[in-house]
């Protein structure tokens, strides 16, 4: 029997942190607002749409944002306030379904296949949710409606800000066909280049390859690519899913020596620490124990090194120091060049599990 079609909504608050700041301070409205601490090691947490017109984006070094938009107003982040607004928004979600999977403070998947509010369709539910958010928080949200999670997430970007885009089941393949393959989840810049070498630029091009061919070229990920090209995604919305890791990575414009990676590691550590603090606000009992350093050499060899210290890192600086120190365990010639570095926090556990543990390193 064919399982019933899911009805998924992806809701994404518009420039959330910056919009909260503009809402609460009328002097900021209409001005380019950058939510970030000032300083050479700071990164942008959020940028208003006025700032985005100058090329400012989240996770960008704050110094670069200042160069792109000298007239920007820098506001230090207030995660306690953002968390309070996020709780308001999630209370609105809960009126429609119990199946809510938060991705962050400002976005979530909702499965409204069985709509608790009694509305006749997922589209009607999405409209009601967006209207309630506007009325109760004085903020705007964009939403995508689709039969699965990844299509709903892509759709929510189509009419940002303050928009709604609906992809019905019979429209999925046509909707995906003209999109760049980089819009598919998991397809980063490196995979884009590998696919471009095969003549694949948009999703429709990907359909010219059999699943077996893609699997031969890319392993199990190739079969997943084939499924995504046709809009197939059976992953359910999972409520209450705990974060297993927080990580980010940076691909360099030019390959670097290991000793030259420190500024990038420190910037990534600060970015991850901000994400970790957001996670702790939602799950204060869960503490990340393990620091991971990821490196990719110029010839695409991937190495990881990890450490579980006796005491978990207590600051962005401590995280950066551990990640930088892990470079000493790489063990490759000093002339080796690297095209990518990543920093991660993992090993989440409750306080009762935080007994001192030996160092743990993963071989590359």
UniProtKB/TrEMBL annotation:
<dbReference type="GO" id="GO:0006281">
    <property type="term" value="P:DNA repair"/>
</dbReference>
<comment type="subunit">
    <text>Monomer.</text>
</comment>
<keyword id="KW-0515">Mutator protein</keyword>
<dbReference type="GO" id="GO:0000287">
    <property type="term" value="F:magnesium ion binding"/>
</dbReference>
<keyword id="KW-0239">DNA-directed DNA polymerase</keyword>
<dbReference type="InterPro" id="IPR017961">
    <property type="entry name" value="DNA_pol_Y-fam_little_finger"/>
</dbReference>
<protein>
    <recommendedName>
        <fullName>DNA polymerase IV</fullName>
        <ecNumber>2.7.7.7</ecNumber>
    </recommendedName>
</protein>
<dbReference type="InterPro" id="IPR022880">
    <property type="entry name" value="DNApol_IV"/>
</dbReference>
<keyword id="KW-0963">Cytoplasm</keyword>
<keyword id="KW-0234">DNA repair</keyword>
<dbReference type="Pfam" id="PF21999">
    <property type="entry name" value="IMS_HHH_1"/>
</dbReference>
<dbReference type="InterPro" id="IPR001126">
    <property type="entry name" value="UmuC"/>
</dbReference>
<dbReference type="InterPro" id="IPR043502">
    <property type="entry name" value="DNA/RNA_pol_sf"/>
</dbReference>
<keyword id="KW-0479">Metal-binding</keyword>
<dbReference type="GO" id="GO:0042276">
    <property type="term" value="P:error-prone translesion synthesis"/>
</dbReference>
<feature type="domain" description="UmuC">
    <location>
        <begin position="8"/>
        <end position="188"/>
    </location>
</feature>
<dbReference type="InterPro" id="IPR036775">
    <property type="entry name" value="DNA_pol_Y-fam_lit_finger_sf"/>
</dbReference>
<dbReference type="InterPro" id="IPR050116">
    <property type="entry name" value="DNA_polymerase-Y"/>
</dbReference>
<keyword id="KW-0235">DNA replication</keyword>
<dbReference type="InterPro" id="IPR053848">
    <property type="entry name" value="IMS_HHH_1"/>
</dbReference>
<dbReference type="GO" id="GO:0003887">
    <property type="term" value="F:DNA-directed DNA polymerase activity"/>
</dbReference>
<dbReference type="InterPro" id="IPR043128">
    <property type="entry name" value="Rev_trsase/Diguanyl_cyclase"/>
</dbReference>
<dbReference type="Pfam" id="PF00817">
    <property type="entry name" value="IMS"/>
</dbReference>
<dbReference type="GO" id="GO:0005829">
    <property type="term" value="C:cytosol"/>
</dbReference>
<keyword id="KW-0460">Magnesium</keyword>
<dbReference type="GO" id="GO:0006261">
    <property type="term" value="P:DNA-templated DNA replication"/>
</dbReference>
<keyword id="KW-0227">DNA damage</keyword>
<keyword id="KW-0238">DNA-binding</keyword>
<feature type="binding site">
    <location>
        <position position="106"/>
    </location>
    <ligand>
        <name>Mg(2+)</name>
    </ligand>
</feature>
<comment type="function">
    <text>Poorly processive, error-prone DNA polymerase involved in untargeted mutagenesis. Copies undamaged DNA at stalled replication forks, which arise in vivo from mismatched or misaligned primer ends. These misaligned primers can be extended by PolIV. Exhibits no 3'-5' exonuclease (proofreading) activity. May be involved in translesional synthesis, in conjunction with the beta clamp from PolIII.</text>
</comment>
<feature type="active site">
    <location>
        <position position="107"/>
    </location>
</feature>
<comment type="similarity">
    <text>Belongs to the DNA polymerase type-Y family.</text>
</comment>
<keyword id="KW-0808">Transferase</keyword>
<keyword id="KW-0548">Nucleotidyltransferase</keyword>
<dbReference type="Pfam" id="PF11799">
    <property type="entry name" value="IMS_C"/>
</dbReference>
<dbReference type="GO" id="GO:0009432">
    <property type="term" value="P:SOS response"/>
</dbReference>
<feature type="binding site">
    <location>
        <position position="12"/>
    </location>
    <ligand>
        <name>Mg(2+)</name>
    </ligand>
</feature>
<feature type="site" description="Substrate discrimination">
    <location>
        <position position="17"/>
    </location>
</feature>
<dbReference type="GO" id="GO:0003684">
    <property type="term" value="F:damaged DNA binding"/>
</dbReference>
């Amino acid at each position: 029997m064919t399982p019933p079609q899911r009805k998924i909504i992806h809701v994404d608050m518009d420039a959330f942190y910056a919009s909260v700041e503009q809402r609460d301070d009328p002097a900021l409205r209409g001005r380019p607002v950058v939510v970030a601490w000032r300083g050479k090691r700071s990164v942008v947490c959020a940028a208003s749409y006025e700032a985005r017109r100058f090329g400012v984006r989240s996770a960008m070094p704050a110094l670069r944002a200042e160069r792109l938009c000298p007239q920007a107003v820098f506001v230090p982040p207030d995660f306690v306030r953002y968390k309070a607004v996020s709780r308001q928004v999630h209370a609105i979600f809960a009126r429609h379904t119990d199946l809510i999977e938060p991705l962050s403070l400002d976005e979530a998947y909702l499965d409204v296949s069985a709509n608790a509010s009694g509305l006749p369709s997922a589209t009607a539910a999405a409209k009601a949710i967006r209207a309630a958010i506007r009325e109760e928080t004085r903020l705007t949200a964009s939403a995508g409606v689709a039969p699965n999670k990844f299509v709903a997430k892509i759709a929510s970007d189509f009419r940002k800000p303050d928009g709604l885009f609906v992809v019905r089941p019979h429209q999925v393949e046509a909707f995906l066909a003209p999109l760049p393959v980089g819009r598919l989840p998991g397809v980063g810049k490196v995979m884009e280049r590998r696919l471009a070498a095969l003549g694949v630029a948009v999703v429709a091009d990907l359909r010219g390859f059999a699943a077996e061919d893609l699997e031969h070229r890319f392993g199990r990920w190739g079969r997943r690519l084939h499924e995504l090209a046709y809009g197939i995604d059976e992953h359910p919305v999972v409520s209450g899913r705990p974060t297993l890791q927080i990580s980010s990575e940076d691909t360099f414009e030019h390959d670097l020596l290991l000793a030259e990676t420190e500024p990038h590691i420190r910037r990534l550590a600060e970015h991850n620490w901000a994400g970790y603090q957001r996670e702790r606000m939602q799950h204060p009992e869960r503490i990340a124990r393990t620091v991971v350093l990821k490196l990719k050499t110029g010839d695409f060899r991937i190495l990881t090194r990890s450490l579980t210290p006796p005491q978990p890192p207590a600051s962005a600086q401590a995280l950066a120091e551990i990640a930088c120190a892990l470079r000493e365990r790489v063990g490759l010639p000093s002339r080796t060049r690297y095209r990518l570095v990543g920093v991660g926090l993992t090993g989440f556990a409750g306080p009762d599990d935080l007994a001192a543990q030996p160092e743990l390193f993963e071989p590359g």
